[in-house]
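Table S2 (continued). Query chain:
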Amino acid sequence: MKKWVALVAALSAVFAHADNYPSKTVSIVVPFAAGGPTDRVARDLAEAMRKPLGDVSIVVDNVAGAGSSIGANKVAKAAPDGYVLLLNHIAMASMPNLLRKMPFNVESDFEYLGMINDVPMTVISKPSLPAKNYKEFVAWLNANKGKINLGNAGIGSASHLCGLMFQNALQIDMTAIPYKGTAPAMTDLIGGQIDLMCDQTTNTTSQIEAKKVLAFGVTTSKRLTTPALKDLPTLQESGLKGFDVSIWHGLYAPKGTPADVVTKINNALKIALKDPEFIKKQEALGAVVVTDKRTEPAEHKKFVASEISKWSPVIAAAKEYID
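Corresponding output:
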């Protein structure tokens, strides 16, 4: 009888919470260090969602480490009340394949709240690399097999995944050099300590524009409209048929978050994605705000499942894991 009363009380609290949500500060966990592109997306989104959620305070909590799994695990284990959310990128699709021990299940331990943006990527090299176009670039890669250093921002990072896909597409083995973030990797690329990198336009556009690195292609199926990148060919049109890689961000809540709360957050997210100021800020980062059906929870979840399948063979072939 006592257990039944306790259960009824708990359920009553959940439904009352759903009616009053949000009544206190909402936290968005970013599983990467402050100052990076995902952190910037989260802070812009927090501001855009504040009014749609009733002028509630929304704070960003940076919990970095282990390919984003530490921060993601914090949210997976949080109370399912809508006050602790997760904003993560393509790592949601790579973690199931990269981590030897998963402390949570990406597909069953979260409520999917909707996609936020897509971020194109570019293949860039050190400024001294002797190639003027993609054809010469590939010729150089083939002539230097076994000696190529491919930098990335750490195992599980966007640049790591794109690099794996690029190697797989070309069938050229390269030595992966993981760094603790994009900034040190970019510094060494500019200085010539590593040969090439594949990274988000949020990190590469200004360096390409300043001619500090060489650019050989964008990873999306269509050319970009950004002034500094509009003449850069896609890897597909250069010969890598079917190559289409972009980094995306999505919003998540712990599994079991009440349906009414999920709906409220999703509605606030969709309003934020139409906010002109938010769109302007994302465009400045080289990102494209999602406007398609992936803003719906069910479609968001379906998309991530397809991305998990997409990256599984690429990561398995590379045999690079996070212990």
